[in-house]
Amino acid sequence: MSWSTDKAADIMSQRGWHVAKTSKVILRDARLIDPSAGLDEIADLLIERGKIEQIGKIKEDNSKDFKVLELNGKIVAPGFFDMHVHLREPGREDKETILTGTMAAAAGGFTGVACMPNTDPPLDNVGVVRWVYEMASGAPVAVHPIAAITKQRKGNEITEISELYQSGVRALSNDGDSVMNSEVMRRALEYSSMHDMVIMTHSEDDDLAGNGVMREGEVSTRLGLTPWPSLAESIHVARDTLLAKFTGGRIHVSHISSLDSIEAVRQGKAQNVNVTSEATPHHFSLTDEACTGYDTNFKMNPPLGTPEDRDAVIEGLKDGTIDTIATDHAPHTTEEKLVEFDRAPFGVVGLETAIGVAAKKLVNPGHLEWKDIVEKMSINPRKIMRLPVVTIKEGAVADLTLIDPECTWTVDPADFFTKGRNTPFTGWDLPARPIGILSRGWILISPAAENVVG
Amino acid sequence: MALQSNHLLGLEGTPREDIQAILDSAISFKEILERPIPKVPTLRHVTVVNAFFENSTRTRISFELAQKRLSADVVNFSASTSSVSKGETLIDTIRNLEAMKIDVVVMRHPMPGAPVILTKYCSSKVINAGDGPHEHPTQALLDMMTLREAFGSFENLNVTLIGDIAHSRVALSNIYGLLTMGANVAVCGPPTLIPRNIESLGVKVYHDADEALAHSDCINVLRIQLERQKSGLFPSIREYHSFFGITRSRLLKASKDLVILHPGPMNRGVEIDSDVADGPQSVILQQVTNGVAIRMAVLFLIAGGEREDELVN
Question: Which of A207, A225, A340 would best serve as a mutation to test chain B binding (most B beta carbons within 10 A)?
């Protein structure tokens, strides 16, 4: 089942992708965007043995033996990294596997992902974490397991954090459940701070959220659905910001979704607290109004916010309060979602629509520029996880995402590589799409990239 | 004469003309109920399934009586005896029922939106008989029929719903229907039993029962469930009764013409006292009678509207 068997390469090839291990590639007329290198210009890239050897004008006679991609101004950026995905393996292989999840990531333009530990068994010890590394080895998408903060994700006793750190883990989270006990959270922050690890919070007060299934507001009142107040999130964001300030530990607020939570992070940053935050494409593009038809593909945790919350997310992305865009890719089976709203599990898939939705809802309306998207989807997530930031410069490893910023395509979940069909974006026309990645010696080019592959 | 929608899922968005049509037809059906042989052949070509995914004896009996008075073929289904308890999904259950050729599903379900989901996966006509704390349109329609009998019109009628607004399907349907028909609607109860955003629907909020009564032509007293007290939404039944219970002494302070409704089942001595429930201002039993007439009207307009001629036979 691992990539090293080339199984995924076969599956993607059968669906029209160009998938190869290639040592010599030239990207011609690419729009190189890399804010960490101060780069936004049209140039050629020459890649050999997995490294960027030359940037500039590559002469024709230098291109023999090379795979040449004619990009005609399409974007080439440092490889995108989604720091919040659920690969579901081990335990729920009916929802997703490391194989299908990394194919979806590659198709979505990501060269790296960090996967959440709410698996069965959970990623709460070095044995399971090593197994994930093993399963993902050889994939073009780097998989970084996030380990649980507490044993069995129960919220009582902290995991063997130092040993996990030694095995390569850089982030901890009980995502899906909060750590309700503030004392446990305090100790986790203190203990993890000796390795400069980040704790990704799932901010939810269980008592305030209760059995809520959608954001409390006018729409929940109208629909009769059990309300989940924004306070359930913001009270924990405020608490964890205070805990980070007190302990010196680092928190990263996952899937931030409400005005007051964003304000709490903003205040924390103003006081130089070690707090960062992320927003999902669904929280910056949708509101609670979407729940009107009781379609369970709009049921996620935290729930979709009010228009004021959605506007606050966009504002937070603009002013830097929100550092990263992550998908919270949460595949579920069709059977699980085809039930009453109350009964359906929380979560939506996002890997294969993230770049398109960001273009439609952030870039095209003028909220962010492409360089900001690169910052929030490539540079910042790696910085927060203390992973080497990938960059476009001569001598650097070729870890690249290719984007067509001017095309229109319609989201059809039947086209996804993820096993999940639970997207809230079915039928959306998106104005941009990833057309390939170069990563870890692989080159993957989408069939949507017509005339690119020579 | 037919309704603008194939289904009756709720009163949110139901146009005034449709509500008017249902209330008007119900008058004719109430007359039929008073005949020596209270039965007409209007829906003899129609098969109805009463799909009850939670118990509600009075609503089911009211629907079943309405269906039998109209000569429909009726099948009853309740979740406790069904395959739902064996893990079958709502959609499979209904698709199976539908494969047996039915025309109308009357559905009671504990979860909001279940009837909406149903309309996406089956072609039968759907009547919502209560979906969790969302809507219960026929209850609101029978309340409105009773109010029209008492007051003649809804224009500027002051109606107050008292009690557990937050968990009540009756409240939401009444609010939508009454506002559409031109009434003024208020809600009354402690803030913990009223949704934070209820004013966005266009209703006034009272936390003082006497004040609410002073501004009302009629009150609809909602059932207080003991489990709400256990989950901490109010401190005790005793305190609720003393501040929001409809008692004789509280009524003496209000207008003698105040009309009192209760959708049932009542908790006597909690939200309403016996001498009030059984007193001259109460129209509670009239509501029950009107319930059958309203459900006949809804079934007729949804399932047999094109056979209007048969109504008079």
Answer: A340
